[in-house]
Design brief:
single chain; mainly alpha; 74% helix; globular
Length: 266
């Protein structure tokens, strides 16, 4: 395993594009974490100036709700790691490095495993950034809180599964299409248009089993004080069904890539 990590580490470590995309992704996510509450309170304050009932300020950072709030926000950025993985998978074909690795003794299964390990580690790093950000924000804004600060920290693990599964989807598309432009367009089209349109036109019970829907369902809209003010109530736990579906899809996508690699000409 160390050999596989070493091979991939060399490819990414010396890539300026990889570091730029990663820094943009993680920095943007942290900036949103630390600025979203002030932005929303300012927006709601301005919007309620002429309202009959003024909307009070609300907190996204108090324990234990900060875990779900930040994990939900982080879910909007999962497209970044998926695109990063996709780009570097397609580069393996564009620059013939996959052929060179196989010629140097790396089996196709080991090559695939190296990519899956990288997706796992990258998802873990993103989750660590989420965890530390939520913990810091909660400690700063939850003065006097007496409960268990890690009560809903499991949403961080749900975010890990969400990012990992979506990145594996990007990995599969990259392997199948091999061309970065086509693969990126396909992922974006499926994520933002194809699955949402299909989900809209069929039963909600059936669409909840779709890949992206299952990933997004892991972390429901948080029950913030703002939502309660409008009488809305959402799920404040991670459903077993969505966890199982994401795990199944992860193995399915990896299996499709393995079959493709096994029978394709590199």
């Amino acid at each position: 395993m160390y050999r596989l990590l070493k091979i991939d580490f060399r490819k990414y470590f010396y890539s300026r594009t990889f570091w730029i995309l990663s820094i943009v992704y993680l920095t943007l996510m942290v900036l949103v974490f630390f600025g979203i509450e002030k932005f929303l309170n300012t927006f709601m304050h301005n919007a309620s100036k002429n309202a009959a009932i003024p909307i009070p300020n609300f907190s996204l950072y108090s324990f234990p709700y900060v875990w779900q709030n930040m994990a939900y926000l982080a879910g909007f950025f999962k497209i970044f790691p998926a695109l990063i993985i996709l780009i570097y998978v397609t580069n393996e074909f564009n620059y013939k490095t996959i052929r060179q690795n196989v010629m140097n003794g790396l089996s196709r299964e080991q090559f695939l495993l190296s990519k899956v390990i990288f997706v796992f580690l990258y998802s873990a790093i993103a989750t660590l950034v989420l965890f530390l950000s939520a913990l810091i924000l909660g400690l700063i804004h939850s003065t006097g809180y007496q409960g268990n600060i890690f009560q809903h920290a499991g949403f961080s693990l749900a975010y890990f599964l969400e990012v990992f599964t979506f990145s594996i989807l990007g990995l599969m598309i990259g392997f199948l299409l091999k061309r970065s432009g086509l693969a990126i367009g396909t992922l974006i089209l499926y994520y933002y248009i194809i699955e949402p349109v299909i989900s809209f036109k069929i039963s909600g019970k059936i669409s909840s089993f779709f890949p992206v829907k299952s990933m997004s369902n892991l972390i429901d809209v948080p029950n913030s004080s703002l939502m309660k003010l409008f009488g809305m109530n959402f799920r404040d736990y991670v459903a077993t069904q969505d966890v199982v579906m994401c795990i199944i899809y992860s193995f399915l996508f990896i299996g499709i890539v393995w079959l493709h690699l096994k029978h394709s000409d590199l």
